[in-house]
Amino acid sequence: MKQQFRFGRWLASIGSAAVTLIVAALAYGIVAETVAPEKRDPDSWGPALSPFTASCVQRLTTPVAPVVTFRQWTAHAQ
Q1: Is the pTM of this model over 0.70?
Q2: What confidence tens digit (pLDDT) does each residue in 45-59 have?
Q3: Which band of pLDDT confidence, cut at 50, 70 and 90, is reported for residue 30?
Q4: Among 61, 67, 37, which residue's Cα sits nearest to residue 49?
């Protein structure tokens, strides 16, 4: 039983780290786009984010990363 608990906690740690890295990569991309926006391809399908919109998204998503990581860690630690 202890072996399964340790393995589950190890998997939870990997999952938490993966979520943290994904959110950090998204936040980095938003910050990079806000600081130095690139010229957009007129044939691009993606929406163009203004610097204001990008900063709003970044301000909303960045505080969520530690909360999600902490909640995942505590949920699997019990």
Answers
A1: no
A2: 766 777 777 777 777
A3: confident
A4: 37
Residue 70: inside a domain = yes
Residue 57 counted as domain residue = yes
CA distance 29 to 1: 42
Q: Which range marks the domain in which residue 31 is found?
A: 12-38+47-77
Contact status, residue 33 vs residue 54, Cβ threshold 8 Å: yes
Domains held by the chain: number: 1
For residues 65 and 68, what is the distance between their CA atoms, to the nearest angstrom? 5
Burial class (CB in 10 A: 0-12, 13-18, 19+), 15: middle
What is the C-alpha separation between 2 and 70, in angstroms, rounded? 23
